[in-house]
Write a structure and sequence with these properties.
1 helix, Double Stranded RNA Binding Domain, three-stranded antiparallel beta sheet
Length: 59
């Protein structure tokens, strides 16, 4: 599994990140960011905090 920081087509907020599985399937996509550094910071935050996240079943 890996995080990818991507430059998309938007001219105002071109950067986003996605989580990609080992078989190449995209598992999650972020919101868009104005700066590449902001997208990178968000990735670092998810990596740091995701392990302690709880699962909430809203069904």
């Amino acid at each position: 599994m890996r995080f990818e920081i991507v430059k998309g087509k938007s001219t105002t907020q071109p950067y986003f990140w996605r989580i990609v599985s080992s078989n190449g399937q995209t598992l999650a996509v972020s919101e868009n960011y104005v700066a590449k550094a902001s997208a990178k910071s968000a990735v670092e935050s998810v990596m740091k905090n995701a392990g302690s996240a709880s699962v909430v079943d809203l069904t």
